[in-house]
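Per-record layout

source: Enterobacter agglomerans
name: Transposase
length: 56
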Amino acid sequence: MSAKKSKSAPASVGQRPNFTTPEEELEYLRAENAYLKKLHALIQEKQLQTRKTKRG
């Protein structure tokens, strides 16, 4: 039987999970960074479309 690598329990809002290795923290931070970049792009796109509709 192979042992599964246990993942950190989901963190409460506003808190980061405790990491057991630097690699886990790096993976978490990379995922968080990718999420924030996508969110920022979506917000910019929505603002751009709002400006276009206001101009007519």
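summary: The chain has one helix and no strands. The radius of gyration is 18 Å.
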